[in-house]
Design brief:
CATH topology of the largest domain in chain C: MetI-like fold
Oligomer: heterotrimer
Strand content of chain B: 15-25%
CATH architecture of the largest domain in chain B: Roll
Distance between the termini of chain C: 7 Å
Largest sheet of chain C: 3 strands, antiparallel
Chains: A mainly alpha (about 350), B alpha+beta (about 650), C mainly alpha (about 425)
Radius of gyration of chain C: 30 Å
CATH topology of the largest domain in chain B: Dipeptide-binding Protein, domain 3
Helix content of chain C: 55-70%
Order of helices and strands of chain C: HHHHEEEEEEHHHHHHHHHHH
CATH architecture of the largest domain in chain C: Orthogonal Bundle
CATH superfamily of the largest domain in chain B: Dipeptide-binding Protein, Domain 3
Number of helices of chain C: 15
Structural class of chain C: mainly alpha
CATH class of the largest domain in chain B: Alpha Beta
Number of domains of chain C: 2
Structural class of chain B: alpha+beta
CATH superfamily of the largest domain in chain C: MetI-like
Largest sheet of chain B: 5 strands, mixed
Number of strands of chain C: 6
Number of helices of chain B: 24
């Protein structure tokens, strides 16, 4: 019996989501934005083979090596000493030089370089990089105050920023919606106590917590997500709680209760879809807020450890000297484009999820 | 003779009693003060006890003084200087207090403006030779054993409320500094090395030191700025902290600060006193020329400060970053010579900066690793690529001074040597990530550098340099307090630090062996050397400056050989920008203290120049440009053959 | 309803205690407190400036020195760090006696009475006699009575039989008595430091807050009514561009472009108003103009990011309500569009906005560190941030007390606003 019910539910929900997806697809602006942002994000995982100073494929003495490809996989080293390819330098191979040398010698060895041959870490210590170069064919968006390629850093930071924001938002939403919803729905003592806890929590001076934690631990991607989750889930509970209070007073909830439906069913099947509007409206902003959070953390110096590329760090350097316009222009434009795309997606999602066919009546 | 001494002693004890009974409301104090003025001014002190006519007896009694030598008048202010006008200056912090002593008073701004412009010590230092010159005391005497000092206070010296300066003021100031409730323990450390000063007469005061040290006269004579006894008598340490938090006590100096001119967190204005007792004194006649000096505050916002200079809301500014100097000082006002810019060379002690190793811990407990680091740290390249070749290379703890050991090796960029040294130290192989591995133990050569965010640009290129040769320097941002705490608890491997330079080096506070195993002191490296300990002891009792320089040079050499610091770059000049309306001595800034604070003392407002500037700006005309570099002091020293 | 809000007001108490205990504890864990700062000042010979490229800070005659044990004790006592943390918290609240005006004394092994100078009273040196009975002390005034204000206690017994003690006064002073303590950095009462800064932030906060609402709500409505039109699209693009630029960044650009130093001289270079000595000479009208002139750029920078969120929230909320059945009914009944939109839909659409009011108030009043820094304004946010960096615990706690109270009141206001706009909501 229970199983049947479950199956039935699944069938209904599948068709509902299909319907919503179809509706979403019909909204061109949002749909295309969605495709662009998702494909850019997916593509960003493959930046190491597109934007890198390492070769994609090296063929040396009839053996093949894939240094840049190894960069895609986290935790795998792509380090090949120069000696491996017969290069007489200490440390890592210089693939650009190798390429040149082999071409001049007409040697049997060959390698394939990525399209954009700069990586986000090479600075003035490398021959190709000078401080504050303006945009050119070599450096599409110029270089920064230590001579690092702005375009490469912008791209790599895109992946980090979006991943951070996405992860942060998803975790926040799960926690925020369930707790906020439960508070609004159950009310009473439960609401009262949780509200006190949240209030206490919200009053923590986060900067202090971060200073203390960063003096003990080494800031890393996961740690930052964890810290930000600790504070950010709270904001959502305010809205969810208000929405649930409002929805609970409506007749359809009263009807469900009188029909004896379980709390879970009422919360997730009835109230939640009806109170998603502010939540979904906030989704794109939450993503952008996540990006901005990382930007401000980096700006204040408690973000990801250097030399990790980040928009906040780039912006900070740009602002030190506004004459270097490319340093200000690049991160702001990147942030703006990302935001715009995400907001368009958000708008489309909202309409797709609206159970009523949206129509203006006059 | 005997009788007169007795009379004086009696009189002064009565006076002291009288002061101690003071207090109550302000009006009462004032009338009392006025009464006291009369009484004290009428003091007749015999010549042999410092009164009128003492000058003639001084030499016979073993006292010394200094008179300006022919040809060096210009060092004490330019005779062309005229009084008048206002100087506007912007600082990054408002003083936490207007006091010159006690909790929170140790800021640069307090020392260099309030203390140096409103108060005076007994004796001062000659701006070029660093010999003692008269201040409040016209003469001073040193005992045979160099343990006791006598100062003869100039009978002309007056507090700003008209009271004469007497021995009581010296004693009262010392008492205040020794009061632990002023919450400034460093004062008790410094002045606890003396016994309580004793008044020989109203004008002669003597002090005994507890241990033999050539600094004794220097610290007591020239770094103790006097406060008036007749005010201090009503105060204990706690009351001093509270009542004078944002109020300025009468001083003897050329300036004073009125209560209404202290606008908390915004600005304060120093006003020149027409009744300054030494205004015709040859040492100070041509100094202290501005009628008003206004110090405003712009906190942590260097960009805004610079905009204010460009707009003319402030008169002058020191540029600290090379990028601004090279790339941003070329605009209409500087091209047309309205806003002048010049690099002024001086002998200001440059301090020490660079990467400080913790020699107590792996991996920098091995000298070869420290040497290798220095050979891989390509500061020449950074200077060239990032600092517009503005700087020199630092190779000493006492860079650019007579204390620098000229034989110090320079540690040039030499990766081959570095690789060789690392090999010898056991770092022979690289692991699959490309990092060096210590063969005997299998440890990867990785260490953490804790750093405040704003230094990032100096560290990431070094990170790249080291990476190429397999050293993994991981940078972690921390706030400044956390960084210092970790350094003080010796909880670091390597740290980017800077020690400020001092005119008289103090090697024992950072190099003594017994400090190496203790926390919270300046021996952050864990530096130990018996020879240096011996030299430090000898240094304390070496009264000859040449011998002292020899000692410090030897210490510098030993230090550099052990190599606990990989030095970075050094700047031998101050970059100044100012609106072209001022007159100044040819040398612009002092020799030894050559920084922006000299402007307050030696510059003046040139009304003619001001008019010319105004006209030029109205008619859009150009004014003659200055040479980009001012090398008055280097040339001066060359002529003298120093 | 009235009882509900009364109860909510009472509930502020546990939250307040909870927050302050938590933060008080965290503060003590942060590395580099006031003690370490004093040590560091000593080490660097009292130099407060940080080094810059190419060398150390300014030179001085006296180099660094080393803090002796006794001075350390004195400092610990001054900052209260010689007591366990719970006592310090209770003293901060004002329910535990706080020792002040400490002075050291010591008895030789055979000494049973000493005289101690303890400061001044009405202009006279104040001396008291301390009598020793074993390890207990009694403090007598000079007239022979037992002192009402001074207490003495044992510090340490030395090997040679001498005894070190400390004489001190106690007082109850803390948050509950309206005393937030004294700032470590400014050495002034915290309330005195907070007052002017709070006023400044309130000025910017309230003006900016009303301006944002005055612009965003109509704009959101217009966008909802013209959903999908070119106006909607273009205004979206503009507010998102604005949202992508951090306010402080914009402020910095404004100052360079419009401040008069480099390009156009339209606005003053930062500051809350003209320098005080000029400000005081101004007539009322001049003051208003001057204040407004100084406020334009900071306010734009301050609120530029909140424009986007509010506008979009308003738009989406109204859109949602316009598709509800009751609107359909209202239209069907032939009610004019204006009335439907403004009376029926609008009232319901501002619910989500209303529920955020309290939170926004808190944000507004606590100020913005970065913007205050860019414009050289001494506001509340900058004070709080600087206090954290300087480890100025009394100011940090004072800041926190204000922020917590405002936030808690803000939440109540939110609920009240919610109940007012939506009669269906019942708080019990």
């Amino acid at each position: 019996m229970a199983e049947n019910q479950q199956n039935l539910n699944n069938e209904i929900s599948v068709s509902i989501y299909k319907k919503r997806w179809m509706k979403f697809k019909s909204m061109k602006r949002g749909y295309y934005s969605f495709i662009i942002i998702v494909s850019l994000y997916l593509l960003s995982f493959f930046f190491p083979v597109l934007i890198n100073s390492k070769a994609i494929v090296v063929s040396y003495n009839n053996e093949l090596y894939f240094p840049a490809v190894l960069d895609i996989i986290p935790g795998v080293s792509s380090y090949y000493p120069g000696e491996r390819f017969g290069q007489n330098i200490p440390g890592e191979a210089d693939y650009r030089k190798l390429n040149k040398a082999w071409q001049e010698e007409n040697s049997d060895n060959w390698l394939l370089m990525p399209l954009y041959q700069s990586d986000p870490y090479e600075d003035i210590t490398s021959e190709n990089n000078k401080m504050y170069e303006s945009p050119s064919a070599n450096h599409w968006l110029g270089t920064d105050n230590t001579g690092r390629d702005v375009f490469a850093r912008l791209c790599y930071a895109f992946n980090i920023s979006i991943s951070f924001a996405l992860l942060l938002t998803v975790i926040n939403y799960i926690i925020g919606i369930s707790i906020g919803g439960a508070m609004g729905y159950f009310g009473g003592k439960f609401d009262l106590i949780l509200q006190r806890i949240i209030e206490v929590w919200a009053n923590l001076p986060m900067l202090f917590v971060i200073i203390i934690l960063s003096s003990i631990l080494r800031p890393s991607f996961t740690l930052l997500v964890a810290i930000y989750t600790l504070i950010n889930w709270i904001f959502l509970t305010y809205y969810m709680r208000a929405e649930f209070y409002r929805e609970k007073a409506k007749d359809y909830v009263a009807a469900s209760i009188s029909m004896g439906q379980s709390n879970r069913t009422i919360i997730f099947r009835h109230i939640l879809p009806n109170s998603l509007v502010p939540v979904i409206t906030y989704f794109p902003f939450s993503i952008v807020a996540g990006i901005a959070a990382l930007v401000s953390l980096d700006f204040l110096g408690f973000g990801l450890p250097p030399p990790t590329p980040s928009w906040g760090q780039m912006l900070e350097i740009g602002l030190q000297d506004i004459n270097k316009w490319w340093m200000v222009f690049s991160p702001i434009t990147a942030q703006f484009m990302t935001l715009l795309l995400i907001v368009f997606v958000g708008e489309a999602i909202r309409e797709a999820f609206d159970p009523k066919v949206y129509s203006r009546l006059r | 003779m005997k009788l007169s001494i007795l009379r004086i002693l009696l009189l002064s004890s009565v006076l002291i009693l009288f002061f101690n009974c003071g207090g109550g409301n302000e009006a009462k104090t004032q009338t009392q003060a006025a009464a006291k003025t009369v009484e004290r001014a009428n003091l007749k002190v015999p010549a042999e006890l410092g009164g009128e006519g003492f000058e003639k007896l001084a030499e016979k009694m073993g006292y010394q003084t200094y008179v300006i030598q022919p040809g060096e008048e210009i060092i004490f202010g330019d005779p062309r200087a005229k009084k008048g006008g206002t100087l506007r200056y912007i600082h990054t912090l408002f003083p936490r207090t207007m006091r010159i002593y006690g909790q929170n008073s140790g800021q640069v701004l307090n020392r260099r403006t309030i203390q140096e412009l409103c108060y005076e010590p007994l004796i001062s230092l000659h701006p070029v030779t660093l010999e003692f010159i008269p201040g409040l005391a016209s003469h001073w005497k040193i005992s045979e054993d160099k343990m006791q000092f006598w100062f003869r206070i100039n009978p002309d010296a007056r507090w700003s409320d008209g009271m004469p300066v007497t021995s009581a003021d010296v004693i009262a100031t010392w008492d205040l500094l020794m009061d632990e409730t002023i919450l400034e323990p460093s004062q008790q450390i410094i002045y606890g090395k003396y016994e309580r000063p004793v008044a020989v007469s109203d004008y002669i005061v003597s002090v005994k030191a507890n241990t033999l040290n050539w600094r004794n006269l220097l610290y007591f004579g020239s770094s103790m700025y006097l406060l008036p006894a007749h005010i201090l008598a009503d105060l204990d340490g706690t009351a001093y902290l509270e009542e004078y938090l944002f109020k300025v006590m009468p001083g003897t100096g050329p300036y004073t600060i009125h209560d209404k001119d202290i606008i908390n967190q915004e600005s304060f204005t120093l006003t020149r006193r027409d009744d300054y007792w030494a205004k015709d004194d040859p040492f100070t006649k041509h100094m202290f020329n501005f009628d008003k000096v206004k110090v405003s505050v712009v906190k942590d916002n260097d960009a805004l400060k610079y905009e204010k200079l460009k707009k003319g809301e402030t008169d002058f500014m020191e540029i600290s970053r090379s990028r601004r100097w090279v790339e941003e000082t070329d605009f209409e006002a500087t091209q047309k010579g309205w806003l002048k810019k010049q690099k002024v060379y001086s002998d200001k002690p440059r301090g020490t900066s660079g990467y400080f190793f913790n020699m107590r811990k792996w991996p920098f407990d091995d000298k070869r690793v420290r040497y290798a680091f220095s050979h891989l740290y390509n500061r020449e390249q950074m200077n060239r690529e990032m600092y517009y070749s503005e700087y020199g290379m630092m190779n000493s703890l006492y860079s650019g001074t007579i204390y620098e050991n000229p034989d110090n090796p320079t540690f040039p960029y030499d990766p081959e040597k570095a690789v060789q040294l690392l090999k010898e130290a056991g770092y022979t192989k690289r692991n699959e990530d490309g990092w060096l591995v210590h063969e005997p133990t299998g440890r990867v050569l990785a260490f953490e550098l804790q750093l405040p965010k704003n230094y990032e640009y100096m560290a990431t290129p070094v990170q790249q340099m080291l990476k190429e040769y397999g050293m993994d320097m991981q940078i972690k941002f921390v706030d400044y307090n956390t960084m210092i705490k970790n350094v003080n608890e010796r909880n670091f491997s390597i740290s980017m630090l800077a020690y400020s330079g001092v005119s008289f080096p103090n090697p024992e506070t950072s190099l003594k062996s017994d400090l190496a195993d203790k926390n919270d002191n300046n021996n952050v490296w864990g530096f130990k050397s018996e020879r240096v300990d011996d030299l430090c002891e000898e240094y304390d009792i070496a009264f000859d400056i040449n011998r002292r320089a020899e000692i410090v040079r030897e210490i510098d050499g030993i230090f550099n050989e052990v190599h606990p610091t990989s030095y970075s770059i050094v700047r031998y000049f101050i970059r100044m920008m100012w609106w072209d309306k001022f007159g100044y001595p040819e040398w612009i800034l002092e020799l030894h203290q050559g920084d922006r604070w000299s402007v307050f003392k030696y510059w003046w407002l040139d009304t003619e120049k001001e008019a010319v500037l105004k006209q030029a700006m109205e008619n859009d005309e150009s004014l003659p440009l200055l040479e980009l570099e001012n090398k008055y002091w280097p040339k001066y020293k060359e002529q003298l053959g120093i | 309803m009235a009882t509900y809000f009364l109860r909510r007001l009472l509930l502020i108490i546990p939250t307040f205690l909870g927050s302050t205990i938590l933060v008080f504890t965290i503060l003590q864990l942060a590395p580099g407190g006031p003690l370490e700062r004093t040590i560091q000042q000593l080490q660097s010979g009292g130099m407060g400036e940080m080094a810059v490229e190419g060398g150390g800070g300014s030179g001085s005659i006296t180099g660094g020195s080393i803090l002796p044990e006794s001075a350390m004790k004195e400092l610990k006592r001054f900052y209260g760090f010689d007591k366990p943390i719970w006592q310090r918290y209770l003293a901060w609240l004002g329910v535990w006696p706080r020792g002040i005006k400490h002075r050291d004394f010591s008895f030789d092994s055979e000494e049973y009475q000493i005289e101690k100078r303890v400061g001044k009273r009405s202009g006279q040196i104040w001396r008291v006699d301390i009598h020793r009975d074993g390890e207990d002390f009694t403090v007598y005034e000079k007239d022979g009575t037992i002192s009402e204000v001074w207490e003495a206690k044992l510090e340490e017994k030395n090997e040679d039989g001498s005894i070190d003690g400390v004489i001190f006064q106690t007082e109850f002073s803390g948050v509950l008595t309206g005393n937030l303590g004294k700032s470590y950095t400014f050495a002034k009462p915290v309330t005195e430091i907070m007052k002017p800064r709070f006023r400044i932030s309130l000025f910017f906060g309230l003006i900016g807050y009303f301006l944002t609402y005055a612009i965003c709500i109509p704009l959101g409505i217009r966008k909802a009514l013209n959903h999908g039109s070119p106006f909607d699209f273009i205004s979206s693009v503009i507010i998102f561009i604005a949202y992508s630029i951090p306010g402080w960044a914009l402020g910095g650009v404004f100052l360079v472009l419009l401040g008069g130093g480099s390009f156009w001289d339209i606005f003053p270079l930062g500051g809350f108003h003209a320098p005080t000595e000029i400000w005081e000479q101004m007539t009322l009208w001049e003051k208003i103009v001057n204040q407004a002139h100084h406020a334009v750029l900071p306010i734009i920078s301050w609120f530029i990011t909140s424009f986007a969120t509010l506008t979009v929230l308003m738009k989406n909320s109204l859109l949602e309500n316009l598709s509800q059945d009751y609107i359909r009914t209202a239209f069907a009944k032939g009610i004019a569009e204006k009335r439907v939109v403004w009376v029926h839909a609008f009232r319901n659409s501002i619910i989500p906005i209303a529920s955020g009011i309290g939170h926004i108030i808190a944000i507004v009043i606590t100020g913005s560190y970065l913007i205050e820094r860019v414009f050289n304004i001494d506001g509340f946010g900058r004070m709080g941030f600087q206090a954290i960096l300087d480890r100025d615990y009394p100011v940090t706690m004072g800041f926190l007390v204000i922020v917590v109270l405002i936030r808690l009141l803000g939440n109540i206001i939110s609920d009240f606003a919610l109940a007012t706009v939506d009669p269906r909501i019942r708080f019990k």
